[in-house]
Amino acid sequence: MNRRQSQHCGADAGYTAWSAWSTCSRTCGNGFQTKTRTHICQTETAQSEQQPCVINPATYLEPGQWGPCSQTCPGGFQTRRIQHNCGEPPQTETAPCNTDPGFFGQWSNWSVCTKTCGGGRKSRTQRQTCTGQLVAESSSCNDNPCAIWDGWSTWGPCSASCGNGTLTRSRKCRGGRPGESLCVGSIGAIQSVVCDAGPCCDFGWSGWSACCKNGNTLPDLQVRLRGNGCTQRWENVTRICPPGTRVLNIQCSNHNVLFASSEQRRRRRSVEVELP
Question: Does the keyword Repeat feature in the UniProt annotation (predicted)?
Fold first, then answer.
């Protein structure tokens, strides 16, 4: 201590002025800087103060992309790195992944609709990845109204004049959409049933009979016959030609008896008698 300093040493001796602030302790991010002062008489005694300083504020940058999950089912983890702008060691962030036990695979294709019209259902499935459980969902489909058959027409005539023929009737389909197969069913637009038109019989005329020549009152008379050849046969056919009358009596089994009157025979020489 020199003479000048000793003059100031005493009970009230103080400190020197504060030094300037030192440079920041960090070149990046948060640090501190210091200033000091010493005692006038006791130089080994010093005081110091610190204050924070910031150079290029330290921060962690935006995190990177998450890495793949360690497993596809619940219980796995994924990580990502976060870099520091001041060269600090990067941080690693870890998070659980695939936490949903209901994680499913892709849906299957929709099934064929249960109906072509009038509202049906279709379904599809997907399988749970971890448990293997199969889950299904359904949806409505083909809600367009179905085509409807109109009423049947009346039966037409039998297609045959004798024997077995066919009766037919028809109906029309209305509604539905263009291009669809309309009014699908076991019975379509035309319905047919068998009809019986009766036996097919061969009717043919017999040859002419001999003339009745008993007497000269009326002209001679000839008769010929035809009948149902397929179910009946002729029986007891007689001709009576007494003088003055001309009456033909025909008797057949299971047939009506037909008579040709004398007046008819006067108007024509030949009489044809047909049995039904």
Answer: yes
Strands 222-228 and 203-205: antiparallel
> Which range among 35-44, 179-188, 218-227 has the greatest average pLDDT?
35-44
Q: Kindly list the distances between the CA atom of residue 205 and the CA atoms of 9, 141, 202, 224, 256, in Å, as whole numbers in the listed order.
A: 179, 73, 10, 7, 18
- Asked if residue 110 lies in contact with residue 122, where contact means CB atoms within 8 angstroms, the answer is yes
- List the end-to-end C-alpha distance of the chain, in Å, as a whole number: 174
Sign of the CA dihedral with 211 first, then 215, 216, and 219 last: negative
Tokens standing for residue 181: 């197969």
| Helices and strands (H and E) in the chain: how many | 2, 16
Cα→Cα distances 215→208, 210, 231, 241, 248, Å: 20, 15, 38, 9, 16
The predicted pLDDT at position 103 comes to: 67
Contacts of 43 (CB under 8 A, 6+ apart): none
CA distance 201 to 194: 20
DSSP category for residue 7: H
Q: Which domains does the chain have, with CATH numbers?
A: 3-55 (2.20.100), 60-65+72-99+119-146 (no CATH), 148-174+185-196 (2.20.100.10), 203-274 (no CATH)
Q: How many CB atoms lie within 10 A of CB 35?
A: 15
Average the pLDDT over each of 86-90, 150-154, 186-190 and give the range with the smallest value: 186-190
